[in-house]
Structures are given as structure tokens and as C-alpha cells.
Design brief:
Length: 271
């Protein structure tokens, strides 16, 4: 949504101002899971947030020296949202650590979409990522960035995954976590059942996979599973799915899961 004019800046000179309570100590409390709200950080991410179909921005908190350069981005926000402006000293006290970017916003998800709703809304030809046990926020953010870069249509997560709307995950994804539709699907068994119901061919990526990812045929609806580093995907899931691997040099164990997602998505896209 683009507003008719840039929202009016509201000066803040006290870190304890109740109007900016949502931003206080964000390093310790990222608002994830608290009434559907989350923290977005950085100009690029705010640009995505203000244009996102699934999210609303509640407010923004901008470093005074960054305000002029943020004018084009803030013009994309709804005119009604408050834009708070603070000095470096005040902003660092609010955030709990030095904010080098000086650009923050509070976002809210409009609707908690179920995995069934998400899958039903996908096009006939679709590519989904199915994540099981991804608990590292850097990896989560990087996987979403790769999903956006290589044209994945959706991400499904089991209940053991961390939240893609954690501040660090959003930042690492460069806003892709706000672009790629995602939903939680309960247990990994429930996730697989949902994909089955909606006609997805399911592939499990593993260093011990039987087929080379470079020769896997692209199907109309495909889901690629990624598991936690170390333990990998659950044994019962590996036993029921078609397994694929990325060939690497002899004598080396495996790739980081985020790097593996980029290579696998690239290969599938090239099919």
C-alpha cells in the first residue's frame, strides 16, 4: 500500500516513552509469538514490510540522521502509522544495544494461514520447501532468502522449527521471510500428509540420498525437505520419501543446510 503522503514524524526524547514500549530491549525480547507481532530491521526489510500482502506495519522507529534518506520507503507505508524519530543515544537505550542501522518497525501478521489453506492456494505447478527441525535463525533466514531467489512458492515448517519472523531471521532473509508464504503444519508426519493430500511429490535432501539432485526430474508439484544439521531428517520420513543428494568431494561429510538449499533449488529450477 502506498500512502498519499509520508507519515508525520513524531519526536521521541525519552527511552521510557510508553509509545515506543514495543521496541524496548528487542535483543532480549523479539516480540515473536506475542500477539503475532515482530520486529523488522533495516531499510530494505521495511520496504518489503510496507509492500507485503500478508503483513501490516504498526509503527516505525527511525534514527534522526536516517530520516531524510528513509522518505521514499516511508511513503510506501500506510499514512496512519506513527513514525517515531529518536537520537542515537535514545535509540540505543530503547533497543538495548547499538543500532547501527537505525531503522526499525513493528509488524503484525494479518492472518495465521494454515498449511492446508496455503497449499490449496498454490498454483497447479508449484515448488515448496518442507523444513523439519530447522532451529538456527541464521539458517532459517538464509533458506527463505534462497527460496525467494530461486522461485519457491511456499515454505512449510514442522512444529520443531524456529520462527521465520524472529528479528534476526527476517534480517538475514533480507525481507524474504515477509515475501514467501509460509505456514506451520504440526508434526513432520502431519506435514507429509498435507503435502500428500495436495498432490506434491516429496523429496528428502540428505548426504545419503539415493538419487543425484542434478538428474532429478521436475514434477508439476514438488516439495523438497530440509532437515536439521547433524541429525538430519527423521528416519521414518527418510524411509517413506524419495531421497536425493548433492554430490560433494570424497572425504567430506556435508554442506550447511542453507547452502544445500540454494544448490538444490537451483538444480530444480533448471529442470
Amino acid at each position: 500500500m502506498t500512502s498519499a503522503a509520508t507519515p508525520t514524524a513524531i519526536p521521541i526524547d525519552d527511552a521510557d516513552d510508553p509509545r515506543i514500549a514495543a521496541y524496548r530491549d528487542i535483543r532480549e525480547r523479539d516480540l515473536v509469538g506475542r500477539h503475532g507481532r515482530f520486529v523488522a530491521e533495516g531499510k530494505v526489510v521495511l520496504d518489503v514490510l510496507f509492500s507485503a500482502a500478508r503483513f501490516d506495519a504498526e509503527s516505525a522507529l527511525i534514527l534522526d540522521s536516517r530520516l531524510a534518506g528513509m522518505t521514499p520507503t516511508l511513503a510506501k507505508a500506510a499514512a496512519a502509522i506513527p513514525v517515531y524519530v529518536a537520537s542515537r543515544i535514545v535509540m540505543d537505550k530503547v533497543a538495548g544495544f547499538p543500532m547501527h542501522r537505525g531503522v526499525l518497525a513493528i509488524g503484525r501478521r494479518r492472518h495465521d494461514e494454515s498449511s492446508g489453506e496455503l497449499l490449496a492456494a498454490l498454483p497447479r505447478r508449484a515448488l515448496a520447501l518442507a523444513l523439519v527441525g530447522i532451529s538456527n535463525h541464521d539458517n532459517m533466514g538464509a533458506i527463505f532468502r534462497n527460496a525467494a531467489a530461486f522461485g519457491a512458492d511456499a515454505v512449510l515448517l514442522d512444529e520443531t522449527c524456529c520462527d521465520p519472523l524472529y528479528r534476526k531471521a527476517i534480517r538475514v532473509s533480507v525481507g524474504a521471510a515477509l515475501k514467501i508464504p509460509f505456514a506451520y503444519a504440526g508434526t513432520h508426519e502431519s506435514l507429509a500428509a498435507a503435502l500428500d493430500l495436495h498432490g506434491f511429490t516429496q523429496l528428502a535432501l540428505s548426504p545419503g540420498g539415493k538419487a543425484d539432485i542434478r538428474v532429478v526430474e521436475r514434477r508439476e508439484r514438488m516439495a523438497l525437505y530440509l532437515g536439521t544439521e547433524g541429525d538430519g531428517l527423521p528416519a521414518d520420513l527418510m524411509a517413506r520419501l524419495e531421497t536425493v543428494r548433492i554430490p560433494i568431494a570424497t572425504g567430506f561429510d556435508s554442506l550447511n543446510v542453507a547452502a544445500a538449499s540454494a544448490i538444490a533449488l537451483h538444480e530444480i529450477r533448471n529442470r
